[in-house]
Every structure is written in structure tokens, then in C-alpha cells.
Specification:
Blueprint lengths: L1 H11 L4 H21 L6 E8 L2 E8 L21 H8 L2 E7 L3 E9 L7 H10 L1
Antiparallel strand pairs: 1-2, 2-4, 3-4
Length: about 130
């Protein structure tokens, strides 16, 4: 549901599909981590704001909190452990607010670019943000 609502909102504003895809991939990874590590009943909260040329997304869970953040991708034969690195690859900023035993907030931020902009217009918009 998060992907659908957020994607529809971004597309209705004319955000470029590649930018939408990056944001939705990061959102999926953050939500997947919240489900996997989020604590009681795997409940989590998602908030998003779109403005000032960017999308800010927060995924909040009530799990035990992260102990470490991976610095590199795990070996190919390992099934998990890529989510944070994938998020880092597709957004401009990622940060974590971790309270051990009380939960984790993942904050993702991405500058937006638009379908109907030329490359020069897009560069001017991004420079102004």
C-alpha cells in the first residue's frame, strides 16, 4: 500500500519515473526491514512529505534497534543484508534514529526531478534545493 500511495502522489506531481522508482525501492527496503525487525506484531509507521524539491520519507518501527550498519554488500550466497546498502544507493540522504529496545526510525531523503523538464531546467531546480 505504501508503494501505491507514494507512487501515485509522486506521479501526479509529474516526478520523473526513474526518480519515483528509486524512492519506491528505498521505501520497500525500509518497510521490509521494519517488518523483519520491527518488533511486536511487525507494526510500523510510514510518513512522507513532498516539498521544496524533495521527498522526505520516515519509516518507524518498535523493534530492538540496529546494532550496526553494513559497510559493504554481503557475499552473493547470503540471502539478507543488502537493504540498507540498496537504500543508500538510490537516495541522496539516509539517517537512522535508533533507540535500543524502543525502535528505529529510518529517514530517507531524495531530491525530485520532473518528467517534463529539460536537463538544463532540472539542473537549475536541483541547484536551488
Amino acid at each position: 500500500m505504501v508503494r501505491r500511495v507514494l507512487g501515485d502522489a509522486l506521479r501526479s506531481l509529474g516526478v520523473a519515473e526513474e526518480c519515483v522508482a528509486d524512492i519506491l525501492l528505498a521505501a520497500s527496503e525500509a518497510c521490509g526491514n521494519a517488518v523483519r525487525h520491527g518488533g511486536p506484531a511487525n507494526r510500523y509507521q510510514v510518513t512522507a512529505s513532498i516539498g521544496d524539491g524533495r521527498c522526505d520519507l520516515r519509516v518507524i518501527d518498535k523493534g530492538l534497534g540496529l546494532t550496526t550498519i553494513p559497510e559493504r554488500y554481503p557475499p552473493a550466497d547470503v540471502e539478507n543484508g543488502r537493504g540498507i546498502l540498496i537504500m543508500q544507493a538510490v537516495v541522496d540522504e539516509i539517517s537512522f534514529d535508533i533507540t535500543p529496545g524502543r525502535g528505529t526510525t529510518v529517514h530517507l531523503r531524495k531530491r525530485l526531478y520532473w518528467e517534463d523538464e529539460s536537463a538544463d531546467d532540472r539542473d537549475r531546480v536541483l541547484a536551488a534545493v
